[in-house]
Every structure is written in C-alpha cells, then in structure tokens.
C-alpha cells in the first residue's frame, strides 16, 4: 500500500471516529450536550483536528442526518423485498419508517430537526430524492394505467410523509402503545393514504 493510500485510510478512520463519537454522545446525552470539545475528548484528539474535518457542530449533525436518511432508505428497501400487493407494500414502507424511528430515536429526531436550520433541505440531503422515488414507484404501482402529474405526486408524497412521520412520532411519544391497536392505526393510515391519492 502506497503512502497516499495510507494517508487516506488514516483520514477516513479519523472522520468516521468523529461521527461515531458524535453518535455515541447523541444517544447517551442528547443533541443539546453534543459539542466539538466533547467529540475531541471522546476520541482523544485536539479540537483543531475536529475542525479540520468539519466546519462546526452543525456540519457534524448534518452528516449524521445524511447517514440516518441513508439507513432509513435501506430499511424501507429491505422491507419491500418479496411483497407484491400494493397495499401491503405501502404498509411495509410505513412500518419500516416507524421501526427505524423506534430503534434510532435520537438519530430520527435529529434528522427531522437539523433540516429546519438549513436553507435548502433537498440540496443538503440529496438522499431525500431516494425516499421520494421509493414512494413514486409504489404510487405508480397502484395505477399503472395512469401517469401521475408532478404536482399530484408532490401532494401525495407529502401526505405520505406526514402520516409516516406522525405515526413514528406517536410511537416515540407513547412508548407503551398496544401492538394490536398500533397495527390497526397503521392499516387505517394505509387505507387513508390510498383512498386520498389524487392521480390527476
């Protein structure tokens, strides 16, 4: 291995170490407690080293969120494997969203908070396009005979996101929700999404 490769591997190790340390702090102490100084202490590097990789704390949070959205997309894609029924696929997308929010609650809350402070969410998080494309594919699968207009798609997609985020947030808030009741709400939400879809 050449010196350039060794240097790059070393840089990648520090970069990932910074993000892993930030995630640990986020999970154990919360977002408010996260600071560049705490990250530096955790990985035993100086503060200037952290700043050589990230402009500020917000840049660290944005990168953590990017990774979170990538993981969410992966979870949804896995949940759709082997399913052919359009309603079952919609339900699976919502379920995957909720399960991810429950498993990675601190990260999930960060993902939907940090975007409030950026100028252009879709530019900052290009991975959001992958999430919308997943929904677009499922929407087209519901009515293969109709081409959905862009404005109609946007409206339907935002409705889906509202329900997905709402259910995920409810499950974070009411941690002792009865699984049967939760399943009923989920199925009603899917029926609601499908019945409210506008194909024009």
TrEMBL record:
The keyword DNA-binding applies. The keyword Transmembrane does not apply. Keywords: DNA-binding. It comes from Mucilaginibacter jinjuensis. InterPro entries: Homeodomain-like_sf (IPR009057), HTH-type_Tx_Regulator (IPR050624), HTH_TetR (IPR001647), Tet_transcr_reg_TetR-rel_C_sf (IPR036271). It comes from the Bacteria. This is TetR/AcrR family transcriptional regulator. Residues 35-54 bind DNA. Residues 12-72 form the HTH tetR-type domain.
């Amino acid at each position: 291995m050449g010196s350039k490769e060794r240097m790059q591997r070393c840089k990648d190790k520090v970069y990932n170490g910074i993000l892993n340390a930030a995630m640990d702090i986020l999970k154990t102490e919360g977002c408010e407690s996260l600071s560049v100084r705490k990250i530096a202490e955790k990985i035993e590097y100086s503060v200037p080293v952290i700043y050589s990789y990230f402009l500020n704390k917000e840049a660290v949070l944005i990168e953590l969120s990017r990774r979170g959205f990538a993981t969410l997309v992966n979870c949804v894609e896995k949940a759709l494997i082997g399913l052919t029924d359009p309603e079952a696929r919609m339900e699976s997308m919502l379920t995957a969203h909720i399960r991810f929010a429950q498993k990675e609650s601190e990260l999930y809350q960060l993902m939907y908070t940090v975007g409030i402070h950026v100028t252009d969410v879709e530019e900052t998080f290009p991975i959001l396009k992958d999430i919308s494309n997943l929904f677009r594919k499922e929407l087209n699968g519901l009515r293969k005979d109709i081409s959905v207009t862009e404005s109609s798609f946007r409206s339907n997609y935002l409705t889906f996101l509202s329900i997905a985020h709402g259910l995920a947030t409810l499950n974070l808030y009411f941690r002792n929700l009865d699984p049967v009741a939760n399943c009923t709400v989920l199925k009603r939400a899917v029926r609601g999404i499908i019945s409210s879809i506008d194909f024009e």
